[in-house]
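PROTEIN SPECIFICATION:
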Amino acid sequence: MPNDTSNPAAEPQPWSRYKQVRKILDDASGDMHPSYQGHDRFWNLPLAELLQLTLYGVRMIAPATSSSPEAPPVAAAMSATMSPCCHAPQPKAAPTAQPQIELGRGASSGLIVGLKGLSPFDGSQFPRLPWGGAAVSAEDIQFIEKWIDDGCPETDAPSTGSIATGLGDTAHVMALAAGTARFAASLGTVNAYRQATGALKVRKNINFLTPEELQRFRNALAKMKSLDAYEQDERSFGYWARIHASQCQHSWEQFLTWHRAYLYYFEQQLQDIDPTVTLPYWDWAADHDNVIISITDMGSSVALDNGVVPEAYRCWIDQQGLDALKAGGVPQPVLDKLATILGQTFSSGNRLFLAAGIKWGDDPVSDQAIIKTLGTINPLWHYQRWPGGNSSIIFEAYPSPEDVTRVLQIENFFSFGSGPEDNHFFGALENLHNLIHNFSGGLNPNYGASTEPMNVNNPQAGDMVNAGRTAFDPIFWAHHSNIDRLWSEWQKLNPSGGPDDPDDILSPWSMTVADTYTTAKLGYEYMQSSHVFPSSSQMPIARFVSQSAGVHPQVIAAHRRAEVRLHHVQYSTRAGFFIRVFLNQPDANAATPTTGNPHYVGIQNMFTGLCIGGPGHCAPPPTTPRRKFDLRARAHKTPAGFRIDCTDAVDRLRRQGDTDFQVTLVILNIDGTVATDALHMDGVSLNFFD
């Protein structure tokens, strides 16, 4: 049967403001389908009908022209139903000259009045438009109003004004869509973008968090610590640290599953404070060489507090800290000593004291004031941490990247992750885990025989060495995030491997072992670093050209895998198309060779087709949350993503001297011509993995 060409959804349509107006209103409506005087979503009526539509006496689109001034359609409808009720007519006053206020066609339209929530759509007679949906943004209302002012064109692409994409004015947006302007890297956090698009959040390498990501993490942790006086408050940091003391699982198969659940629930608590925060991981194997150098530099005679930890977890004194200490009464000679190390970072508080020439214990009150201030400056630092140990042991035992690779090659889950319930033993990964606990906590160089053994302010060993205290050190969470990451990598290599107790409950939560089998179901994935270039699904892209990502040199040098992702690609009601991917070739086009081209990454194929349903049948589903009891399967046109491995291309370009990367996409029809109406997506990202 031939396609019904009278159905506008049956043919591919180029982008237009009219199409975008409908999308804005559909998105705002979400899952709601109220009756507008017998109509469903009246804006999806044929345009000719919409232009004449009157709902409850209100003209939705004001007439284009009039031979004499008339009241706006809403005002006219209201005046027809209102008259004086309680008073005699009053004599008319003499007319006075006042400036004539003329509303444009858009502002006079009931649709715009309703979207703005003005009378009678202010709740006095009707709710704001769209009924039951989300409020339309002021920017989008302005866009719709301008479309009406311009005559409600059905097929144009605007040449002036602003397309409601959030990407700039119309000229810039059209240049982006054509590939003559470059998409900028997001200035926000990766997880802010993923939160907005409903994607999995990212747990990143602590060394490659952006300054904003790191500060958000610190702020959330500080907020939890501020509640530590309330020991039973589950929002406090101490509440979660004490769970490990009483419930932790080690030396058997629930070592990995229990700690994955533990991290998940702690992370949820952080996200109650800031939804963009996740638990970064500490790739301690990547620090192997720096650890060896640090211990070597300090000499074999130094057996304590001689290692290094990531800079994010170190301590330092700044001017604000000095001012706080001065206000708190710390003696001036101590302040003068601290001023000599202003801004320098140290892997332990002990080393900061030594560098400043302050002898621990001479003034306990001053010592504790300094410790408190250092913790305020950096909530990730922990005083009871003295990383390091005997040089011969560390040289032998500290894990290298090659050691981690060997552990990941173990195929048996129990040998990898610790033994079964009826045969407990430490697996290879838990053995590395134990070493890092001992290394990062270390022994207290200021501990003496006369010291109280249970004094938490001056213990014999760092908290990371003590299972009952370990989770009080913020670096614990980064260490275990890395353990969890390595398990997730092992799972990719051994998808059928795992523990044999899937139905066991991971106390004190209701989560089962089976619930922990995939990180995706828990809402996160691991990445070394990620660089996002937001787009807008409201415009089609013929050629995507990004700016340079600003990849950290260490990421370029030490990543294991790289990947380009296309986010939320929409189903297009047209014939299929192809997407060619290039790195560092911003001038790539349909004629650019791919064979032998070091910049070429690969091609992605999109299988689409014409729509078999009525208007809206093939539209993307609403982005608003589904109704609570809507148990139906996902919508059949739910946007999906593409993941394109670009490891080889990055390596080729790195070896030829490239020090940063940008992404270019060329979108082609089946016949090889440029496809200008095919690719609608929310953005592109360039991602690197340890």
